[in-house]
Amino acid sequence: MSATSRPSGAVRLGLGSIARWVAIGLALLWSLAPIYWMLSTSFKTELEATRLDPTLWPEAPTLANYIGLAGTSLPFVSFFINTVVSCLLTAIVCVVIATPAAYALSRARFRLSGAVGYSILAFRMLPMVVVLAPLYLLLLNAKLLDTGTGLVVGFTTFGLPFAVWMMKSFVDAVPIEVEEAARVDGYPRWQILLKVVVPLIMPGILTTGTFVFMEAWNNLIYPLTFITTMEKQTLPAALVLTFTGQFKTDWGGMMAAATITSLPLMIAFFAVQRSMVRGLTSGAVAGA
Amino acid sequence: MAAETSMTTARARPRARREPLLDWMVLPTLLVMAAVVGYPIVYTLVLSVQDYNLLDFSPANYIGAANYAKLFSDPIFWQSLGNTAIYTFGSVGVSAFFGLVLALLMENLGGAPFRAIRALLLTPWAVPFVVVAFLFRYMYLQNGGIINAVLLSTGIVDAPVPWLNSATIALPAVMAANIWAMTPFFFLLLSAALSAIPNEVIESARVDRAGTWGMIWHIKLPFLRNPLLISSLLMVISNFNDFAKIWAMTQGGPGYSTSTLVVYVYRLAFESFEFGYASAVGVIWLLMLMVFAWLYMRALRMENR
Q: Is pTM, for the whole model, over 0.90?
């Protein structure tokens, strides 16, 4: 939903509107300056990045930081692949399992629908760290510690309940009438879901999947605890592990790595930005 | 946007007696949740009454409520609890306010350039938490950080501020980074809520010659109350869980000055491997979080009614 185009009086030019533009300008500066700083620094040499009088624009722009990422002793390419694979896998697993559940909860043709819906919502609000220790022992016993599968299991703890609720709000928007024809023709429910409902909520499915992907990408605590081999680590955890050393001062390289870590998330975010309000709060805005 | 959800439809419609208890379509979700969340919660409860230490090879013993008793006299637990409250409510409050101001500023501005501005204002949301942390850590550097450089050159401060190295300034500094990353969420949701106010309401207020402030205070804010409440509760819950930003910026330090409960539990479990005690802290915290989860669900239900 877009927040535009309410028929309104013409924009008056006065003291009030000047203050408004100044405020919008400041907001843009506040939002974008840190991102500009990250990009700018990623093209600086190590020496220039730590100068006492920082340069706004790189004096001698260099790609060395980015090239360095591929060629150092640290397997940044593997970190990148690990993160993309585990987050994508989490998104797919969560969406596939959540779709029928979201459909069933939305249509609510069973007596426990309220109880099931709210307990899934309660799971979504669970403090991750509460299940951290037992989940660690569980994965240890299942020999899944230090594997990508273990990571996907960890991400699923928050991704799945999130996916169910987000998707449910998209199914809610599909009028039940569109299913009638198929029902009259005697199709079983799972076929109605697959052939009628799923095509209609495809944008919602993609939005939900992207959000699960983003949440997994943002997660630090699970890779940090469940992955012990450096080569198997994800990007966020690798940034923390390689950079907490006191003597590392290569901020140029750091910001290049940060830029690479941000890119997939930014692309995903802007791809679904338009349709995300609905799913995010499951009706929080709708009834206003 | 569909306003009603199944919760309300289910309540409004008298239930047919032949409706089954459960739908097989929710079973995969329920089974997975039981395995990866339900079982660990039960396990946490069990661990919380044991003296389980992963490094200790002797079997874990049942020690009753000893972990819980220890917790009440543990100053670091109380400090972490206080930090969690300050971090969460401070960040959410300020972000909600900024988001509200932005949403009001950008209201009714249509057309391509404003769509672009709106997208740019949302960008911080798309920055991964760990990157937010390192980016601000770099900008906060005592020597060579851009923030100190600007403050020094404009004469606002005489000596570089030790942002993340001071026990008193570190927590607000981490919160500022958090606020930067969270404001777009409130901006987006409140913008959507603003545009959902019926035109007739705005028009009739305009006919009544309501001024800009009167319009905001008496007409718009009442419409924004529920969306604001629900999105704030949602962010409170997610901030209670925030580990990435704090850990990557300060690791809870200096000392325990930025240590929240997540950080403390993580340190207990994975630095000193005291799984039993860490679980007890987790259980207490779970109980507190459930209060907010309950409030959130109540607010949602009120909204859907």
A: no
